[in-house]
Amino acid sequence: MNRVPYSPDHDLSGVNSLEELKAMAVACTRCGLRSGCSGVVFGEGNPEARLMLIGEGPGADEDRMGRPFVGKAGQLLDKILEAAGLERFTHTYIANVVKCRPPGNRVPRPDEAARCLPWLYRQIELVSPGIIVLLGSTALQNLIDPAARITEMRGRWLVSKSGIKIMPTYHPAALLRDVSKKRPVWEDFQKVRDEYRKIMNS
Ligand code: SF4
Fold first, then answer.
1. What is the best residue among 38, 98, 120, 123 to mutate for testing ligand 1's pocket, by most ligand atoms within 8 Å of CB?
2. Is the Cβ–Cβ distance between 159 and 2 less than 8 Å?
3. pLDDT class for 4, splitting at 50, 70, 90?
4. Fewer Cβ close by (within 10 Å): the C or N end of the chain?
C-alpha cells in the first residue's frame, strides 16, 4: 500500500460531536457557494461506521432534499453497496468535499474546496473510519494530491499516516455516463468489502 500525505489542517478540533459540527456547518458562509444553493448538505449515515464514502458535492436533487447521494448517482451507489453486502445507513457514513451545490453542477474550485474541507476533515476524525472510499477525481485531488488522476489511482489501496485505508474509484455519476466503468468500480468495491470484513473480524 502507498502511504499518502493526507494531513488534515483545520480549526475545528474543539468540536466534539457530529451534531455540534453540523449545527455549525449549516450556518457556514465561508465561500460563495452558499449564496447559490438551498442549504448545506452536511452528510449522513452511521456516525460509528467503519466505512466512509466521500464524493464531490451536492447536485440538484441533493440540494433540494438536503441529503447526499439521493439522485440517480446515489441510487446507483446504493445498488453497488447492496451488491457488496453493505447497507448505506448501517455500514457507511457519506459526505462530500463541498457541502453546498456548485452552480450548474460544475466542479468546485480549489478555493471553494479549501474553505470547505475543514468540515470534512473534522467529520472524518469524529466518524473515525477504518476505510475511506474516494468517489471520483474531485475527492481524490482534494484529499490526496491535486495532480492525481483517478484513471491511474483507482483500485489501488492508499494508507494515511493515521492508518486509514483509502480506495479511490470512479464517481457513480461517471458510471451513468460511461457504462464501461461499471466493471472496474465493482472490482474496487469488492476489494472494499473484503477489507471491511477483515477490519470487522479483527
Ligand atoms: S461549500 Fe462549504 S465552505 Fe462553502 S459555504 Fe458551503 S459549507 Fe461553507
1. 98
2. yes
3. low
4. C
